Amino acid sequence: MNIILLGPPGAGKGTQARKLVEERGMTQLSTGDMLRDAKESGTEMGKRVAGVMARGELVTDEIVIGLIEEKLEANPEGSFIFDGFPRTLAQADALEELLAKHGKSLDAVIEMRVDDEALVARITARSTCGDCGEVYNDQTKSWPADGKCANCGSTDQKRRADDNEDSLRTRLMAYYKQTSPLVGYYHCKGTLRPIDGMGSPDEVAGALAGELG
Ligand code: AMP
Fold first, then answer.
1. What is the rounded average pLDDT for all residues in the chain?
2. pLDDT digits (tens, 9 = 90+) for 60-106
3. Are the beta carbons of 172 and 115 closer than 8 angstroms?
């Protein structure tokens, strides 16, 4: 099975992708994580995209399509969760071609619907474990008082450089302008499955499971 998690920043795509990896053995392909890794390891591409990401704009289609292509080629038997990709119509077309090339197809596009105010509140409160990727929220699931990640014991609590209000405004604008047309695109293709993303992670996971079967 191959699915897309579609939704604005803070919709909970990463949290749900992690659950699917654990529960169904699928492979998460997050272009945001791949770009952050490239930036942290100081590759040429990482240096090129750093400013664009910090401002909250989209990096070029060519770069992210190339990243996804590499991952598909490295794991031809995989069952994928596309998290944060595609984000433009050109990326959606490229994904369709890449999947076809590997004899795969898209089973569902899960549109996670969340109110704008909730997105801002979630994003400005979020942090993650730098080692295992566990996601925390200062209000609902705060980083443990002993300073250690509840999942792996690491003390590496990270906040994303682009999780600030300025960058978030640009990221939301990019979502509505460049990514939300994909809702209509996948609706026409018959693969769109909207779910309510406002509940707790477990509630949203239940709604997601209801769509995936
Ligand atoms: P994310 O972790 O998905 O919120 O992505 C963080 C940042 O990486 C975005 O604000 C963009 O600058 C960049 N990015 C991630 N995925 C894509 C994509 N599919 N297309 C263009 N830019 C992306």
1. 95
2. 999 999 999 999 999 989 999 999 999 999 999 999 999 999 999 99
3. no
Tell me how far the alpha carbon of residue 189 lies from the centroid of ligand 1, in angstroms: 24
Contacts for 91 with CB less than 8 Å, ≥ 6 apart: 61, 64, 65, 85
Which residues have CB under 8 Å from 69's CB, separation 6+?
98
Provide the pLDDT for residue 165: 85
> Which of 33, 58, 89, 127 to probe ligand 1 with, by most ligand atoms within 8 A of CB?
58
Distances, alpha carbon 199 to alpha carbons 91, 115, 135, in Å: 29, 11, 16
126 catalytic per annotation: yes
User: Is 36 known to be catalytic?
Assistant: no
Report the C-alpha gap between 144 and 9 in whole angstroms.
24
Please say if 158 is a catalytic residue: no
CB under 8 A, 24+ apart: contacts of 61-64: 61/88, 61/90, 61/91, 61/94, 63/35, 64/31, 64/35, 64/91
**Is residue 44 exposed (0-12), middle (13-18) or buried (19+ Cβ within 10 Å)?**
exposed
Phi-psi region of 180 (alpha: psi -120 to 50; beta: other; left: phi over 0): alpha
Residue 166: pLDDT band (50, 70, 90) is confident
